[in-house]
Amino acid sequence: MTTKEQLLIYLKEGRGSWVSGESLSNRLHVSRSAIWKHIGKLREEGYLIESSPKKGYLLRKAPDMLLPNEIRDGLDTEIFGRHDIVYYSEIDSTNTKAKELASMGSPEGTLVISEAQTTGRGRKGRTWFSPPRGGIYISLILRPTISPGEAPKITLLTAVVVAETLLSLTPLSVHIKWPNDILIQRKKVAGILTEMSTEMDAINYVVVGLGLNVNTPDFPDDITDKATSVLIETGEVFSRVRLIREYLKWYEKYYEIFQSEGFAPVMKRWKELSNIIGKKIMVDVIGNQFTGEVRDIDEEGVLILKDDQGNDHRVVSGDVTLM
Ligand code: BTN
To answer: pTM of whole model > 0.90?
Structure first.
């Protein structure tokens, strides 16, 4: 931990009361002028810190930013987000950055965060609306010991994790739309983009990107009918930092379950959280459309669709519309 991070912890421990410069300098083993410099850095990051020659320092307000310090403070994980959180105030795409870092050897659990994305990417070449402050745009690096063919399981697992996160911190009822959209009623609140690098029949790395509309007040005209945010649904502003901490906690939990017990428990929860089984749907597979009733999702996450003649079809990937 850096001196600045430790200083912030001491200021937070003060819980709204003054902390003397002398005690900070003694505890951190640095001069009082060094403390002053670190305070300046924290202020630049958006922390509101009062200072008084007699009383010392008082932390009034932490910024509404996704700073690594803030995420780590109170984070209940062993690995994910513990060490490597890479923060940007703006970037093209956190997935692109995470892939770059993963290919240079960044370890499992590394998290790339940005306050905004200039070219946020969605599935199938779509864009992801990524304005500053409102949403969460993060990418997690994983190095699972599974075969490339099993990678879709990571996406399904992530959808469960996102749903659990929203269910634990908000009053919303959310569900998963196959394979990985998180919906409130019929509107999308979160999307997942999984990308990977493979070699022969092993995975080098997987990057799981999450876009979660938290405090986004409104959306561009072309998606306003399809997209929603936690703010729009609840009328309340939610802490993005808390949501990220909760996401990492659930992620570590389900990832551990997947590795130690296999995919069945994750799939079981996915089915409970999805409202698709038994529903009549239309699925678009690269421009070809099929309709039918969803009979099941199999162990690999493949959708089993029963057509009007009663024949089963296996759909590995596609866009689903409920009818
Ligand atoms: C989708 O539903 O189409 C997936 C959207 C995924 C968006 C996230 S935002 C963070 C990460 N970086 C990106 O460029 N995309 C993903």
So the answer is: no
